[in-house]
Structures are given as structure tokens and as C-alpha cells.
Amino acid sequence: MSDDDFFSVVHRQRACREFSERDVPDVLVAQVLDAAVFAPSAENHQPWDFVVVRDANLRARLGDLFKQAWIGGGREFSAPRVPPALLANVDAGMDGGFASAPVMIVVCADAERTLNVTVPSSIFPATQNLLLAATALGLGSALTTITTLFADDMRQLLGLPEHLQPVAVVPLGWPAKPLGPPRRDPFADHTHRDRYGTAW
Amino acid sequence: MSDDDFFSVVHRQRACREFSERDVPDVLVAQVLDAAVFAPSAENHQPWDFVVVRDANLRARLGDLFKQAWIGGGREFSAPRVPPALLANVDAGMDGGFASAPVMIVVCADAERTLNVTVPSSIFPATQNLLLAATALGLGSALTTITTLFADDMRQLLGLPEHLQPVAVVPLGWPAKPLGPPRRDPFADHTHRDRYGTAW
User: Fold this and answer.
1) A interface mutation test: which of B6, B16, B75, B127 has the most A CBs within 10 A?
2) For residue B168, how many C-alpha atoms fall within 13 Å in the half-sphere facing its CB?
């Protein structure tokens, strides 16, 4: 099984929260976005828009939003709910780690091309394709949604029209250090056969 | 590039709405679900539950919910919004096509393991992994959310506790006929650089 094998990519996808200074060429960003748009969407309306943020000032401003959302409430909420090691990793990401990525992709939903109720099922599959494609290319990435608490700030920062709703921000770059394997419960722990509670 | 190559799988994923009678062995269902749980989730809480529905009676009842949701409003809403060929395909799926799949996977979110606000970003990436894994194995699948209009009926049918919210139903089986390539706009049509409206 090669590294490019589908299941190999799936099994090594993991959030990256610290990036090296090495740049990511546009040809790789293009491959990642091309993979994103092959995801399904309600009625095939493909209601996504992507803003590829490379400008250092804009990335710093997005980085400020991460800090603000985390320190202003996210951390307090998460701290009792996650293991200390994960919390330390997230701390590092929020406090400059994410902003150190040379590219930040802001994923938006266009309200003129879908309904509110179908935004999630039409946007997060594309976002997952994007994350997997990054993994396939050796890039680090992470799915973050916390800055969307500041949707209006993001609209102003990136000149987004009112009908575009920022849904996620994905930092993209080369991992500063190798990422370990993701930690997951076996699927069978949460799988049932025919009716809830029957071992699958 | 082999058929198992990550990007090859991504580029051929497409909704399947008509299935052959050939069964899907559990070993393949397991591979698909194992891929699903490697997706990211908020705080890594992995708030998914899967019900693998094989029972013919239960599948028929889920099929009734598809028909009911489609004929009772979904079709009227979608008809003016989608091309006739797609509408005909969806008609076929809703009117028995989806129910002809030997396996239906009901994807649920557990409110005790996540917040309402993080359900979408924690469940649809896993669902997308599931769909891609099916594609990698040659199986047909589709992302459907319309039956979740009848969440209470689904809870009763599958014995789901109140804290489980059905989020999607994925029919899984062997495609009755070869699936053509997915139709998508080029990503560049909806991608901007640094600010909205700047060609990427």
C-alpha cells in the first residue's frame, strides 16, 4: 500500500498546529481546492467560495481572531472537556501556530446558492476533501471553525459580501514536525446493527 | 495513477441512486466505517453513532420516509432549482432506488458528546470519509439528509435514544450501472486571493 493509497491518506490525516516557514506553491493549493469541489452538495449547487489568504498582514489579523476567540471564551469552555495534552496543542495553535501557516484558506457558504439548512451537508464534505488532499500531498492542515464567531470581522477583513458566510478556516503549510497517528475509538464502539444497542 | 490513488477516488465519487441486488459483505462495511471515524471532530470528541440497517423491513420503512419527504414537499421545492436530468435521477432514488440498497447507514450525532454548534463540523467530515471509502471499494453510496425531517420517526424505527440526532442516511450497495463522472464547476470560478473578488 503506497502513501498515495486512499486508505493510507485517511488513516494519517491529523490536525497540524505548527508550521515551518517553507512556502506552499500555488500548484499544490490548486490541487487541494480542486479536490474540495469534487465533494457532493445538496442539489449539486456547489455553494462554496474559497479565499486563499497569503498576505502576511491579513494572516496576522486572522491570527488575532483565533487568539481573541480562544482567550475570550473558547479555552475556558474547552479546558475541562479535553485531555491536557490536546489542550496544550490547541493553545499553541491558537497562540500563533495557525497564523504561522503560509496559506490560510477561508471556506465560505454562499446563501444565494443554497439554503441555511443545507449549508453544513454542502460545505463540510468539501472541507474534508480539502483536508484529505492536503494530507495526501504531505501538507499540514486543520479544520477550525472558532473564528466564525467573528463572521462580521472576517467579512470586513476579506471584503466578503453579506451573502457569504465564513464557515471554516484551514491553515495550510508544511508541518514543523512529524505528526503522530490520530487517536480514535474503534468504529465498533459506536456502531449498531438495525437498532440502537445491538452489537454491530 | 491507480484506482486506489487518493485523487482518483476523489474525482470519481458520485451519488448512486440505483443498486444491484448483490449483497455487501460486513468486511467492506467495516472498512467504510473505519474510514469514517478517522475524520476530525471538535475537541476530538468523535460524537458519531452509526446504525447499519440491513433488515429488509426497516429498509422499506426508511424507503417510505424518503418517499414521504420527497413527495410531501422536497420535490416541489427542488423541481425549479435543478436540471431535469438531475431531478429524474433524484426521483428514481427517492422512489425506491435508495431503498434498494442492501445496506443503509444512518449517521447520528450524540448530543451528549458534542454541542449543537459543533455537530455539522464534527459529523459531515466523517460522512464524507464514509462516502469516499465506499467509492474506493467500488461501492455506490449517496449523502442524503432529507429523511432527517422525520427525526422522531427514525428514532422510533431504530430505537434511538433522545440524545441521538439522525443527521444523514447513506444507502450503500453495488451500483446498478456504471456511474459517470461528477459534474463540477472549476474551483477557480469560486476562489479568490486575499480578498473577495480578486482572481485567485
Assistant:
1) B6
2) 31
Q: Does B55 touch chain A (CB under 8 A)?
A: yes
How far apart CA B51 and CA A199 sit, in angstroms, is 10
DSSP string computed for A97-153: IGGGSSEEEEEEEETTTS-GGGHHHHHHHHHHHHHHHHHHTT-EE--B-GGGGGHHH
Mark yes or no for CB contact A34/B187 under 8 Å.
yes
Contact A52 B194 (CB under 8 A): yes
Contacts of A191 in chain B (CB under 8 A): 33, 49-52
CB A122 within 8 A of CB A109: yes
Alpha-carbon Rg for chain A in angstroms: 17
Q: Could you give the CA distance from residue B79 to residue B64 in angstroms, rounded to a whole number?
A: 20
ipTM (interface predicted TM): 0.96
Q: Are B41 and B125 in contact (CB under 8 A)?
A: yes
B191/A33 touch (CB, cutoff 8 Å), yes or no: yes
* Nine-digit cell string for A184: 480514535
pLDDT, tens digit, 9 for 90 and up, residues A63-83:
999 999 999 989 998 999 899
Instruction: Give the pLDDT confidence of B124-170 residue by residue, as tens digits.
Output: 999 999 999 999 999 999 999 999 999 999 999 999 999 999 999 99
pLDDT at B2 over 70: no
CA torsion sign, A117 to A121 to A127 to A130?
A: negative
From first to last of the 200 residues of chain A, give the pLDDT tens digit.
Answer: 567 899 999 999 999 999 999 999 999 999 999 999 999 999 999 999 999 999 999 999 999 999 999 999 899 989 998 999 999 999 999 999 999 999 999 999 999 998 889 999 999 999 999 999 999 999 999 999 999 999 999 999 999 999 999 999 999 999 999 998 999 999 999 999 999 999 99
* Rounded (5°) CA angle A133-A139-A144: 80
Domain B14-176 has CATH 3.40.109.10: yes
What are the extents of the domains in chain B?
14-176
**Which CATH superfamily, name and number, covers A6-178?**
NADH Oxidase (3.40.109.10)
